[in-house]
Amino acid sequence: VRLAMNPTELTFIEGPPGTGKTTVIEEIIRQAVSRNERVLVVSQMHQAVDNILKAFKDEGDTTPVLRLGNNPEMFRYGTERFWLGNAETGIRDEALIGEFQQRVIASQTRGFAIFVTDMGIATNWALKDPAIRALLLGAGFDRVIMDESSRETTVGAFVALSYLNSQGHIDVIGDHRQLPPFELTIWTCSNLGTCA
Q1: Which of 109, 115, 128, 169 maximizes the CB count within 10 A of its CB?
Q2: Which of 31, 49, 66, 63 minimizes the C-alpha distance to 143?
Q3: Quick one: pLDDT band at residue 92, thresholds 50, 70, 90?
Q4: SS3 123
Q5: Reported pTM
Q6: How far apart are CA 18 and CA 44, in angstroms?
């Protein structure tokens, strides 16, 4: 955690399952938010994002967090409590934005954390609303945390990193022994006929 909070631009954290990577991510988020950082937490998988977010769902926790995503059926661990909504529902609960803003004010910091999949940040309907976009994105994020990075595609990583401000910090966390990302290859396209 100390290494990630140092004024470096990039931190790599690697470890096999069960070594505490998620706990380290949670603490990085808490410390970064307390330092007024705007944190974007991404992964290729909804489950990984929600696995981190569930640490912030206790009633007494005042860390300002929001969950973006288009399909709430993918969410786990009760994290839909922080879900803003989708194109079908609109803003699911106007009070949620108010609660989020109150948490930012109550924490006496401008820091907060947004949880979303790597491609979800680019396709989320709410970010098309100028007021919400200004509130959440502003001048970009101060920190991007990529969990399950061994599964990350190049495109997914670049999408998330495009929201990082010029002075931002990147935390790349994962286990290089886990499954690699699934990408369509030329062989897959030609032999399975799955590419347009």
Answers
A1: 115
A2: 31
A3: low
A4: helix
A5: 0.81
A6: 19
